[in-house]
């Protein structure tokens, strides 16, 4: 029997409840509406949030008065509490860091030059292909636990470093087994279409067929993935191949999302018929893309960690997207090649300093809009009665400190489904 959890004396409670925004993901000015309650309290019962309000009001509650001895009470002593982060784009199934790539890039090699020299995504394949599943399970689980220690409670996790039927399914199984041993929520994505592996270099169409006919059907049937993802860009998959993979995913009941516009622009218009959950990266985008996106609920997931780690001088055009009413999310893009961080507050800090998003906007983009990107917004991303009791407690007095203290973990406690998962 799970004991009720009562968090009291919260300095600022960011409920993310917005009276002003309509249904659907947050756009434009609504991104700044954090629904803050000061001197607040939250009561959680059976893994769900039961009430949010001021500590004073909570202490007058007759139920709490009667049951106070049976409740686990945490005095937050003026700290900031917000919904656990939703990291809606990660690649945790890999074996080793890519240190040679790192060094080469520091010496001046480009992403394409590193890939051409046998580095990049392809260099992570061997480790995953040879690895026993259990080794991958432990890697993923370690990452999930580390994420929780940084305030993240819901994670999207992609396969994509196997690129054979066997190793992609093994990667998804590893995600699924790690997820069962972690209290948080994991949304799994098949990224069989990460790059065309060497064996199919001159016959990419054959590889696309392998993804469509041999990876997607078992991943869907065995419920190993909820989404299929495609890296649609130069050097990866064409828009036509992407549409083909989306069609197969749709046919088998998987949602779709894509790495889009990271290295070069791709017209988005032909893809909206698949109702994509998100387009991720979007460093390159046209005015027409922005217009199309503003009319749809497809989230643009911005991944500034990759731009930072690649040492790029350009960053995703957050202002242009937000000002046009496009719903945006932020994620870490945790992966061994281009963004080896799982700290959401680092991505948030980068979004403030390099993309000119405000501290309030980055919090919304990392919680409720991330939940929309994973289609779990009915359960995650805000602190409201009935939602899952996933919360992060930060040892700061003002929410703006969360992206301010960059590279430092100020997460003091993480609660998942009403249970303390991490206490720093
Ligand atoms: Zn990615």
Which terms summarize this structure?
single chain; 424 residues; alpha/beta; eight-stranded mixed sheet; eight-stranded parallel sheet; 16 helices; 16 strands; 34% helix; globular; binds zinc ion
State the total count of DSSP E strands: 16
Global morphology:
globular
Which structural category fits the helices and strands? alpha/beta
Taken as a percent bin, the fraction of beta residues is: 15-25%
Distance between the termini: 25 Å
Rounded mean pLDDT is 96
User: Largest sheet, if any?
Assistant: 8 strands, mixed
Describe the 3D structure.
The structure is a single chain. With 424 residues, the protein is of the alpha/beta class. The chain has helices at residues 55-60, 62-67, 99-106, 111-116, 125-130, 133-149, 165-180, 204-221, 239-251, 287-294, 304-309, 318-323, 344-355, 359-366, 368-373, 401-404, and strands at residues 5-14, 36-45, 48-54, 72-75, 80-83, 85-90, 152-158, 185-193, 227-232, 255-260, 278-281, 299-302, 328-330, 391-394, 411-416, 419-423. Strands 1, 2, 3, 4, 5, 14, 15 and 16 form an eight-stranded mixed β-sheet that branches. Strand 8 (185-193), helix 8 (204-221) and strand 9 form a beta-alpha-beta unit. The longest helix has 18 residues, at 204-221. The radius of gyration is 21 Å and the shape is globular. The two termini are 25 Å apart. The model has no long low-confidence stretch (mean pLDDT 96). The chain binds zinc ion. Residues 89, 91, 259, 333, 335 line the site of zinc ion.
